[in-house]
Design goal:
This protein has 120 residues and is mostly helical. It has one domain: Helix Hairpins (Orthogonal Bundle), CATH 1.10.287. The chain is built from four helices and no strands. The model has no long low-confidence stretch (mean pLDDT 95). Its main location: membrane. It comes from Cruoricaptor ignavus. It is a multi-pass membrane protein.
Length: 120
């Protein structure tokens, strides 16, 4: 197997990220990251809270990438309806949903203290 240079490896990875922008859910989750970035700067979150928000946003986006990869592999292996493939796709999507709920919970725990300072 041919080894690629580090630059080629990064290029392949960036191509993968660029491809993900064709996926609606990824675009929505990326928009949530941008909103969170704006809130981090506008509300002047602490480094710890900023790191927590950024890590969970990255986790959601990464889960979406894995979910999309799993779905594409499943579609390649079995292009027709199949209950086993549906199960695999459903649990993969469920993992993304679980992380999205965790992201919402983190926001509910982190942002109110900064919003109360803003409005006091």
């Amino acid at each position: 197997m041919k080894r690629h240079s580090i630059f080629q490896s990064f290029r392949f990875a960036f191509n993968g990220l660029r491809s993900m922008f064709r996926e609606r859910n990824f675009r929505i989750e990326f928009a949530a990251l941008l909103i969170n970035l704006a809130l981090i700067f506008l509300l002047e979150l602490s480094p710890q809270d900023s790191a927590m928000i950024l890590l969970i946003c990255a986790a959601v986006l990464s889960a979406e990438i894995f979910n999309t990869a799993i779905e594409k592999i499943c579609d390649f292996i079995q292009p027709n309806q199949d209950a086993r493939i549906k199960f695999i796709k459903d649990i993969s999507a469920g993992a993304v949903l679980l992380l999205a709920f965790a992201a919402i919970a983190a926001a509910i725990l982190i942002y109110p203290k900064y919003l109360s300072l803003l409005f006091s």
